[in-house]
Design a protein that fits this description.
The protein has about 260 residues and is mainly beta. The protein folds into 2 domains: about 120 residues, Sandwich (Immunoglobulin-like), CATH 2.60.40.10; about 100 residues, Immunoglobulin-like, CATH 2.60.40. Helix content is about 10%, strand content about 35%. It contains 2 helices and 16 strands. The strands form 4 sheets. Strands 3, 4, 6, 7 and 8 form a 5-stranded antiparallel β-sheet that branches. Strands 11, 12, 14, 15 and 16 form a 5-stranded antiparallel β-sheet that branches.
């Protein structure tokens, strides 16, 4: 009888352990990932440093948050590094003021090291506010949704002088461009071979003279770069009072040679 009770006790313990183990396995993870945090538009190169990242940080093309890109009429979105390590996929959604139903435009898997995405839809319209959010999905299927950020494009400025790769003599030459449409201000950048900012005008160019767009570059700004090719670009802006944000575009980049 004693032996029977011992065996019975062992069986009861075993069944309990197996039962609890099965329950834990089914409920291993019902907690959704921490919601991703989208990065709003923080500004552009040459703006005052941003405190968004916890300390004063110079703004670059890489850390400016949602922005356009020089390579195309596209929008780049960005988010802070994910907190959870078990996120298996990010789904990217977009909507706009004309079509307010969010549509999934892409997904990223595995997303752990990814903190940005370029929307290369060539049908994005000018002066339309596009809004983006992302959905995080962990390996257990739990989901969470980020906040929403928005951006509006302008037509790209077209660089006209100097021709790409041509010599540029700052004593007599000007950087020139054209713009089809309207922008209330422009910002011109000259960058070194590593795309670090060398020079921009102290003040942005505020003008409505769309057929006479140019700036002169100080000779001393280019003197240390004699014998090198430098990049240049023009960004266009136009303020939207309702959105409290600029529409924006970046020209394609060109290079010029400093003789």
């Amino acid at each position: 009888m004693k032996k029977f009770l011992i065996i019975l006790g062992i069986l009861i313990v075993a069944i309990t352990v197996i039962s609890c183990s099965g329950k834990d396995e089914k409920e291993v993870d019902k907690i959704p990932p921490y919601p991703p945090t989208m990065i709003p538009y923080l500004g552009a190169m040459g703006d005052p440093p941003t405190n968004y990242y916890g300390q004063p940080t110079p703004i670059t093309d890489e850390n400016s948050g949602i922005d356009t890109v020089a390579e195309g009429d596209w929008i780049r979105i960005a988010w802070k590094p994910l907190i959870d390590e078990d996120v298996a996929m990010l789904r990217i959604f977009r909507f706009n003021e004309l079509d307010t139903e969010p549509v999934q435009i892409d997904s990223i898997a595995p997303p752990r090291q990814t903190t940005s995405y370029v929307d290369k839809d060539n049908d994005l319209l000018e002066r339309v506010w596009y809004s983006y959010f992302i959905e995080a999905i962990d390996f257990a299927g739990n989901t969470s949704v980020s906040d929403t950020v928005s951006f509006g494009l302008l037509n790209k400025p077209t660089l006209t002088y100097p021709p790409n790769g041509a010599p540029f003599d700052a004593t007599r030459d000007s950087l020139k461009w054209e713009f089809a449409g309207f922008a209330s201000r422009y910002r011109v950048y000259v960058m070194d071979p590593e795309h670090k900012l060398i020079w921009k005008p102290i003040e942005d160019l505020h003008t409505a003279l769309e057929n006479d767009l140019y700036v002169r570059v100080p000779v001393n700004a280019l003197t240390p770069y004699r014998g090198q090719y430098l990049y240049w670009r023009v960004d266009a802006y136009d303020w939207d009072e309702g959105q409290q944000q600029d529409f924006k575009s970046k020209s394609m980049e060109r290079v010029f040679y400093v003789p």
